[in-house]
Amino acid sequence: MYYFTADEHYGHANIIKYCSRPFKSAEEMDQVLIVRHNSVVTPKDTTVHIGDFCEPKDRPFAESIIKQLNGQHIFLPGSHDHWLNRGPAKKDLRIEQIIWTHNHKNDGKSHVIVCCHYAMRSWPRSHYNTWQLYGHHHGNVPPYGLQLDVGVDTNNFYPYSLKEIFEIMEPREELFKAAFLVFENNYKDTWDWLTSPAHGLDGAIPNNFIGTPGGFEEVKNLLIQIDEGIFS
pLDDT tens across 4-25, in order? Predict the structure, then answer.
């Protein structure tokens, strides 16, 4: 099983203040992150860390954290990952370039997922509905298109499993395809509507509302009404 996460900021005391994290010290934060990681990730799993793994610039600190985490690891550089360039890496330490693209399979389904620390306006094969996972913004920048912020601040300091990614992104993709037809294949109009308060949903944002009970069907029904001219 693959897991995805970003913005752990191990050893970074100031991130507690910057992001209002509920910890009294960097040491407490580090231990909570390690415990929550190990509560879901097994030694057989692989975690993709999409940038800003830790603040200290020395590799020994980073490797002291890595050895406490279950599973294998893939690292993409972020804004704070100076440790990636400090000294020789261990043979089992896998470091990728700033953009990592992989075809992932889940329950017999496959999908291309693009990982980059930064939320991109366009990414490899985005016009073919690939998904982009990003971090950096700590939940403060909403997705544009088929994106998801997988930073720890968006998931109660747990990594996202591949299964969870599919559960979140498949309805978004289906909704996007339906909206794209309604808005006459206009990408900007489609995403402006999906990410803005909708009158027919009492001001709720469609892309967020689909995660509520019954929300997906309600949004689909609203699109039908828009297509029929009932709502504008």
Answer: 999 999 999 999 999 999 999 9
Q: Using one digit for the tens of pLDDT, what is the confidence trace for 88-124? A: 555 456 667 778 888 887 777 789 999 999 999 889 9
Domain boundary among 115, 133, 158: 158
How far, in Å, CA of 7 to CA of 159, rounded? 10
Which residue spans within 107-227 are E strands per DSSP? Answer: 109-116, 131-134, 147-149, 160-161
Alpha carbons 132 and 101: distance in angstroms, whole number: 9
- For position 185, what pLDDT does the model report? 87
DSSP string covering 146-159: SEEE-BGGGTTT-P
pTM: 0.87
- State the residue range of the domain holding 197: 174-227
What whole-number distance in Å separates Cα of residue 81 and Cα of residue 86?
10
